[in-house]
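Q: Sequence in, structure out?
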Amino acid sequence: MKKLAALVMVFAMTAATLAGCSGGASQASTETAAESAAEVTTAEETQAGDVAADDTVYHIGICQLVQHEALDAATQGFQDKLTELLGDKVTFDVQNASGDSATCATIANKFASDEVDLILANATASLQSAAAATSEIPILGTSITDYATALEIDDWTGVTGMNISGTSDLAPLEEQAAMLNELFPDAKTVGILYCSAEPNSAYQAGVVNKALTDLGYTCNEYTFADSNDVAAVTTTASTECDVIYIPTDNTAASSTEIINNICQPAGIPIIAGEEGICKGCGVATLSISYYEIGQQAGQMAYEILVNGADVSSMPIEFAPTVTKKYNADICTALGITVPDDYEAIE
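A: Exactly. Output:
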């Protein structure tokens, strides 16, 4: 501002000198001085605006449905990517709903009232609660199998048209069915085990059921309403089936020890929809990296917050890679040998 004052004084003195020579020249010079001073002021205001933008700290609310390995990895990937891109210009309010949809709604409503800059909804119930809480704050989902199912969108085009986008944890389901057939070609009956309260699990079950039926298997679906029913339903499935398939299911993922304690002693192998479930109770999986889809969501958040991307027109993104993996301990216990192109879960 001192430079501005000095500049204005110089213009004023010049104008005064010229006034002694010509009245018309004085008026013109005074107008020129005023214009130049205005330009300097505008430049300083622009610089001040840039500094303000640089000082922006983005506040992000994260609602994770339940704590287990897959969802934890997605949340961590999201935070790591945004921290890499924004440094200390981003803060996270991470809330875990402990598997309760009503708690998801409470968390999402709090984020909306706090007017956070963006919400990350990790898992379907979290996404549904966030969508109900706000139609204005950008929402990114992650660990969502099918957004059309989760949000009840007809005529799906790949974008929501709402204040929502994100990343999907959908693995190629037909290829998972083919994996089961590769490892257990002589099996007759496959039990598909999942939580009936998770619509994306039901979606996967339907796709895999058809694929396995086309391969000649008899498929039975076994559903539990919540974690309280897991043991009883799993026990029934293990007595009626040769192999069990579990999709990406949050309730199952948080109950793998219970499932393994029933199926392994019974000699029933499990093909899992994702690595976390496989690590706990499965023999093999064709799995995505939840950390990677979390990172993808973090990059999308950066584009929205910093570059002004329109979340409503951002296509849902999918995992860039899938990998055949196996659980060496359970395979050994059940006497199962996998092909050489499978990678052991660490």
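The first helix runs from residue 2 to 21.
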